[in-house]
Amino acid sequence: MRRTIPLALLAALLGAPFSPSAVSPADAAGRPVVVELFTSQSCSSCPPAEALLGQIAREGGAVLPLAFHVTYWDHLDWRDTFALPAATRRQAAYAERLGGGSYTPEAVIDGQVGLVGSDAGAVRAAVARAQAATAAEAPVALARRGDALVVTLGAGRGAGTVTLVGFDPSHATRVARGENAGRTLAQANIVRAVSEIGRWAGQAATLEVPLPAGADAAVIVQGADGRILGAARLGPAARA
């Protein structure tokens, strides 16, 4: 169950001094650019895209790379071990906004640009352009409290959906059948759960939700047009 708690109480629980401006657009101006890769273990074109996503993840920096494994390849001989209907629905929503239909591997950069996920030059150029234009219109901070995740949203501009994502930093999967039969795939930042946990309308707010499935967690605030307004990652050390 989701609850909203006052910022002053949250600060007391976390042992930190409270200030109404503790989370401000200036504090979160360097929010990460969100890179979403739509992929499948049954797609022979996807391993290079997943390798690129893994490289971007290892480089660190102000980027939040996430691999969403879709379900529409599962009619073949191999069922993707990480496929999520929610990932398929998320890509379909992007296809409606951006055009071009749903395909793998597709990379969506900051909710605004869709391109072939294995095209390293195009992906990196799109990330660089997004980084140059990035502003945290919806400042986000995450903290763990027991078995719960505390999501602090600062005041800002606009309105959007608050989405919680649980993911695993890495997996190696042996694929027995399908287009990648016999291959062991190295996969990074695999999304294990995705759900809408609330709405943000420009006012400061705090949400407390159960930790999602996965070794790490992130929150994305996204406008109706798909534009990313805010994003933050918990980090595996904080999750432990």
Gap between N and C termini: 22 Å
E-strand count = 12
- Report strand order across the widest sheet: 1-10-7-6
The ordered string of helix (H) and strand (E) elements is: EHEHEHEEHEEEEEEEH
Strand content: 35-45%
Helix content: 10-25%
- Per the principal axes of the C-alpha atoms, what is the gross shape? globular
The radius of gyration over CA amounts to 18 Å
- Pick out the low-confidence regions: 1-29
Report the total helices. 5
Structural class: alpha+beta
Give average pLDDT, whole number: 88
Biggest β-sheet description:
4 strands, antiparallel
List the keywords.
12 strands; disordered N terminus; 240 residues; four-stranded antiparallel sheet; 36% strand; four-stranded mixed sheet; alpha+beta
